[in-house]
Design a protein that fits this description.
about 425 residues; 434 Repressor (Amino-terminal Domain); two-stranded parallel ribbon; 2 strands
């Protein structure tokens, strides 16, 4: 008989074997002997939280996606310590285990214990909430509303996932909607510099995407993780994730707009890894993909933000990282011209900040100050780690020049200091 201990023990064993680690090898890394570990994996002993934690620290999340999501959401709201993990844990074998993100992976059998009846209208409601928070994130930054969205995901959406579905299609759609929402919570945390929280939600989202058999969604999340890795100074890990995001059906089955998004982040990762020629080719492919996008395409709501302005912003970042400051400035300026500033306030402010930095690096500090003034004006009311970092970098850049006869430099420093003080930094 498959008891809960046997089922979870088998999951522990599968995770260990998939990572190519023997029982003896694992015993040398954790405070349990080989024989004790064998008892747990066989289900002959009741698993305890510390045993599961040892496996998850080494191999990533083990439990099924719904249980993972419930525990993750509650822990995020309660700020429990297990969220404080390093970057390497988030992109360990748990995310890229062979087959876990395989689009052909069959969904697990429908849960029969739930009593909530779930239909297409429930899927629509979840997606509507996600769109609302996604729009808020674009305007006000990830620091506005993320905890509320995590609570909704944990309390409301997981009750749908454990319910009785009207059809197999509704089940797939609900798991995909939950995966998109988990991704959005992770993205908002990433934007607010809560990186360990972001990593956990991104990982949970890939699980839900696999359960929904939604390869493009998995690619979308891996793209976000690649973006995070590059920003945190892990170019090789970022490239690994970016390459996974454009592999097979994750790229091929995506709509043209999403393919462009995956490719431009792939280009960003290639540039950060010092592979400029390949980055240029990936940028060209991203441009071609976006040009192929049409208003008649059936597109997931998660890509509503990606436009010519977004492509120009990411292209500029790749050129900047490759040392092409002139090209980067041109693309940042194009992004500023093309973006709807009121709808995408956070990114507009960040783009202006990056443009000012490039202008300063090119020796035009007065022009940089004028650009930074616009950036800081746009930041008012935005709660974002990226805008905070821009403000800090502005202050660090102008510090050696304070007191010199450079137009607006003292005002820029004070404005950046006021912004940081207003948001508690």
């Amino acid at each position: 008989m498959d008891t809960p201990d046997r089922i979870l023990g088998a999951q522990l064993q599968a995770a260990r074997q998939a990572a190519g680690v023997s029982l003896r090898g694992l015993a040398g890394q954790v405070p349990f002997s080989k024989s004790i570990l064998n008892y747990y994996e066989s289900g002959e002993r009741t698993l305890t939280a510390d045993v599961i934690a040892c496996y998850e620290k080494r191999f990533g999340q083990i439990r099924d996606p719904v249980t993972t999501l419930v525990n993750l959401g509650r822990a995020d709201v309660e700020r429990r310590s297990f969220l404080r993990v390093g970057y390497s844990t988030a992109i360990s074998a748990s995310v890229l285990l062979p087959g876990w993100l395989d689009p052909a992976m069959p969904a697990s059998s429908q849960r029969k214990s739930g009593i909530r009846q779930v239909g297409a209208a429930d899927v629509t409601a979840v997606r509507d909430v996600m769109v609302l928070f996604s729009q808020m994130d674009q305007r006000l930054g990830g620091g506005h509303g993320r905890t509320a969205l995590a609570q909704y995901l944990t309390n409301e959406v997981t009750s749908f996932l454990k319910g009785s579905f009207a059809s197999a299609a509704v089940r797939r759609d609900m798991f995909a909607a939950a995966g998109e929402m988990a991704y959005l919570v992770g993205w908002m945390a990433f934007d607010n510099d809560e990186h360990s929280v972001a990593q956990r939600f991104f990982s949970a989202s890939t699980r839900l995407a696999a359960e929904a058999n939604d390869a493009p969604l998995a690619g979308h999340v891996l793209r976000a993780m690649a973006h995070q890795a590059v920003d945190l100074g892990h170019p090789q890990q970022g490239l690994q994730l970016a390459e996974a995001s454009v592999d097979g059906a994750r790229y091929q089955d995506a709509c043209p707009r999403e393919r462009a998004l995956l490719k431009v982040v792939h280009a960003k990762a290639l540039s950060a890894a010092g592979r400029a020629t390949e980055s240029a080719k990936a940028l060209l492919k991203a441009e071609q993909d976006l040009a192929a996008a049409s208003s008649s395409d059936p597109e997931p709501a998660r890509v509503f933000f990606f436009s010519e302005a977004s492509l120009a912003h990411e292209t500029a970042c790749s050129l900047r990282d490759a040392g092409n400051l002139t090209g980067a400035a041109d693309q940042f300026q194009l992004s500023v011209r093309k973006r709807q500033a009121r709808t995408f306030t956070r990114t507009h402010a960040v783009t202006l900040g990056y443009l000012g930095n490039v202008q300063a690096q090119s020796g035009d500090l007065e022009q940089a100050c004028a650009t930074w003034k616009s950036a800081l004006n746009a930041m008012v009311g935005v709660q974002s780690g990226r805008t905070r970092n821009v403000a800090r970098e502005i202050r660090a850049t102008v510090a050696p020049y304070l007191g010199r006869p450079i137009a607006d430099i003292q005002e820029i420093d004070e404005q950046a200091a006021d912004y940081l003080a207003a948001i508690g930094n």
